[in-house]
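The instructor's notes for this session suggest beginning with a concrete chain rather than abstract definitions. Hand out the sequence below and ask the class to guess, before any prediction is shown, which regions might be ordered.
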Amino acid sequence: MTTGGLARRLGVSPTTLRSWDRRYGLGPAVRADGRHRRWTPQDVAVLEAMCRLTSAGVPPAEAARAAREAAAGTVAAEGGTLPDGASPAPADRSPDEHAPAPEDRPPTADDVPSGSGRRSQPVATLPLGDVRQECRGLARAAVRLDAPAVDGQLTSAVRRYGLAVAWEEVMVPTLHAVGRKWASSGDRYVEVEHMLSWHISTVLRRVTPVSRTALPDSAPGPVVLACVPGEQHTLPLEALNAALTERGMPTRMFGAAVPAEALTAAVRRLGPAAVVLWAQARSTASLPLARHVAATQWGVRGARRHPTVVLGGPGWAGRSAQGMLRPPSLNEALSVLTARWESAAPGPVG
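After discussion, reveal the predicted structure:
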């Protein structure tokens, strides 16, 4: 495989491959005619391991060492030898290897191949700022469109930190960085945002426990989660749904763009303890709808009840919604909804 072909396969630039060769000894085992690089399957396996490790946040020098050792162990286990004329990969070549020069960095958005398929063109890196290391690894995997790495890192973050922290400190900052880059670069990052969102949704649903325990009749109704009509952004609701069920609270998730009539019918049927209405944009945030849901009643005459309405999303910012709650974060929403559910059903209205 040529250097250009390998760069396109890995989703990095040829410059990055050359710098990894020069700095960490991750070059081709054989050079045709002493000049042209040709990468063997063994070379490719080493670099794929390098990409996986740097995406997981491992420093480049350590990732290179681990990738070489893994490759050497595989060759030894299979009884193989290096190609004729090839020598073992050299040790790391610089005493300041933990502070790589800009061109020696791990793969970032700078390494996204150009649409021509002939040469990689540098672009600005994702604007992550001061975030957890996991965000940087997740961003590297996302811009490379490395689906297995994205899925693995998201799953690892949830297991390590818990769902709420993984959402607020790993998933959201990375999504925001991709969104900002998308907004400033036209449509060049649409595929990155779509793939990352898909895998976040997949992981959230995978870790959402399914309650099979029937609740007693005296228990409060479930928490209803729905996007307002015209709203398609469901990820924050999916995160809240997963976190609520993790706490053992019953939920009913209705997803994107729920028609007003269907939402009202569901509230009457379920008698929910609370209804969460998500609006990402001001154009979809309808206070008349929220008031209508809050006024929806059920139960026998003289003991009618109505739900607590919780407004979620930036679309509600600046709106005056008397009597409705608007928690600013996932943790705040969890606290509000948990307290509401544990305090039993809403009190009767006149």
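Then share the key points. Strands lie at 30-32, 36-38, 223-227, 251-255, 274-278, 308-312. The CA atoms of residues 167 and 245 lie 15 Å apart.
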